[in-house]
Design a protein that fits this description.
Blueprint lengths: L2 H6 L3 H17 L7 H15 L1 H6 L3 H4 L6 H21 L8 H6 L4 H21 L4 H10 L3 H21 L6
Pfam families: Sulf_transp
InterPro entries: Sulf_transp_TsuA/YedE
Family: Belongs to the TsuA/YedE (TC 9.B.102) family.
């Protein structure tokens, strides 16, 4: 790790303690950490505007996750705002829009990099909602309780990430 990079990143112990405090606070207030339901609710709001009958008659999605703005919506908005603040005010011009590995093996285009990240997020979100869960909720909230399903999921997530990286970067040393 370069000296310049070390000034931009939190030490893993500090970051781990901060995440632990967030998860502890979430459990203490009765709201385990998770975000996928928010996207479902936002889609419900949009669909409710376009076709209220569809939303009212949908048995599964909008009865279990009614299209309402509640704490989790503001949690997700806070994540987005905090990311933007960190990117533009903390990291600023020092940030690389296209990491060197991505540039070497895929493209130097920031637009293409953002498109890949967005598409990956959409697939992850779609899969998690299709399975009736939330990846961050299962990984962080379940993992903090040492739930077996969470530990199996975490192992699967990391293994699939390594396989995907190997395929994406065409077997190069990543």
């Amino acid at each position: 790790m370069s000296q310049n990079q070390s000034h931009r990143e939190w030490h893993w112990v500090v970051a781990g303690i901060a995440l632990g405090l967030v998860i502890t606070f979430a459990f203490a207030t009765g709201h385990p950490v998770g975000t996928a339901t928010t996207y479902e609710r936002v889609a419900g709001h949009i669909l409710e505007f376009i076709s209220p009958e569809y939303v009212a008659n949908t048995v599964h999605y909008y009865r279990e996750a009614a299209p309402v703005a509640e704490w989790q919506t503001f949690f997700v908005l806070g994540l987005i705002v905090a990311g933007l603040i960190a990117r533009f005010f903390v990291v600023g011009k020092k940030a690389e829009d296209v990491p060197e590995m991505f540039a070497q093996h895929i493209s130097r285009s920031p637009g293409r990099r953002y498109w890949h990240a967005f598409l990956g997020g959409v697939f992850l979100l779609f899969g998690s909602r299709l399975a009736g869960g939330c990846t961050s909720g299962l990984f962080m909230s379940g993992g903090s309780q040492l739930a077996l399903a969470s530990l199996v999921f975490a192992a699967g997530m990391f293994v699939s990430g390594v396989i995907t990286a190997k395929l994406l970067y065409r077997g190069r040393d990543v």
